[in-house]
Design brief:
The protein has helices at residues 4-11, 15-30, 49-61, 64-67, 77-91, 105-117, 133-140, 159-165, 188-205, 266-279, 287-296, 304-320, 342-350, 376-394; strands at residues 36-37, 100-103, 123-128, 144-149, 170-176, 210-214, 237-242, 255-259, 332-336, 354-355, 357-358, 367-371. With 397 residues, it is α/β, with parallel strands linked by helices. The chain binds pyridoxal-5'-phosphate (PLP). Residues 41, 105-107, 131, 176, 180, 214, 216, 242, 244, 250, 255 line the site of pyridoxal-5'-phosphate (PLP).
Length: 397
Amino acid sequence: MISQEMLALGKKSSVIREIFEYSKVRRAEIGDENVFDYSLGNPSIPAPQKIGETMQTLLREMNPVDLHGYTSAPGDMTVRRKIAESITARFGVPADPALIYMTCGAAASLTITLRALTTPGDEVVLLAPYFPEYQVFVRNAGAVPQTVCCRPGDFDLDIDALAAAIGPRTRALILNSPNNPSGAVFSAQSIERLADLLREKTAQIGHPITIIADEPYRELVYDGVEVPYVPAYYDDTVVCYSYSKSLSLPGERIGYIAVSPRMPMAGDVFAAVCGAGRSMGYVCAPSLLQHTVALCGDVKPDLSAYDRNRTRLYTALTEMGYEAVQPKGAFYLFVKALEENAASFCEKAKQFELLLVPSDDFGVPGYVRIAYCVDYERIERSLPAFRQLYAAYNEGK
Ligand code: PLP
């Protein structure tokens, strides 16, 4: 026998992956330059030079037995100390190396944290639109995802909808800012209102509601926008961080979990994180990468290429007549589909070799996600296709 649940999950890949696979076939058929694949959030800018240099120095100078050996299960203590120092220096809040757990990226950070915090049947609030894998991660922990939509106009938090949805079974809420797929960045004022609501609800229902702050896009913001650091606003917070996007290292699988020292029973929460990591085999994150990010934690990515893509695509599409909210962060543009059914709109877009992701798996109908982490020239070449797609829906109007 095998697990039917896992069999079903393994057989059905995510929509994003399906489109990406289709793209590979199509590129082979008509040439790479003729396919406008906007499906995958794979960083298109190289990792900062300091990453490679640091790896080379570590390989040259560090004792190889230490460098390639097991670290402690939650990660090397010198690495965790450096990360804690960086958190305190950047955000002005306490951080404790003994409450930091090194992981293989945000996906591992989230699955570990969800397993640590929830018991079967607990509800976890997902703010739609959301990263589709949250559904899988929450269910894997035995918890129940509960979707609450953000405001359609600007995708900011809808505090009234949250107030109505949070109940006695609510255990946690996943907050992703900058957001995949909307590009929204929640303001300090929005986070304050959310924190007030959660404190009020915690008092009412008699048990804690934790914010799981999923932050792989923290450094990817434009126009000087600030990303509030959630633990500064709400004590009961676990930060799930990843270097996949900020340092263009998604294939290297490195990130961390930071339990806020202000969190009630922080020590026990961290012990549960260690237990969850252990039970899922997520121990001793890659050692070379741990040491590398510890030395490069404050390296700033050069966002000019993403910013240029963002501006060009947003301006061009809205001028053509598409409706979209200008993204403040991450590298996604969330555009209203030109028909109600986003999946059939994406099928139509394929006729013009535009590969877009329908929003249904992000928890909202009627939109498409465009991952603009691609070459600028590809964006330029794709604009006539977007124009033709728009015309296909509007001819004769
Ligand atoms: N969370 C969000 C919102 C994401 O967009 C992604 C990846 O695209 C992840 C988590 C997973 O990131 P990682 O590659 O670090 O596991």
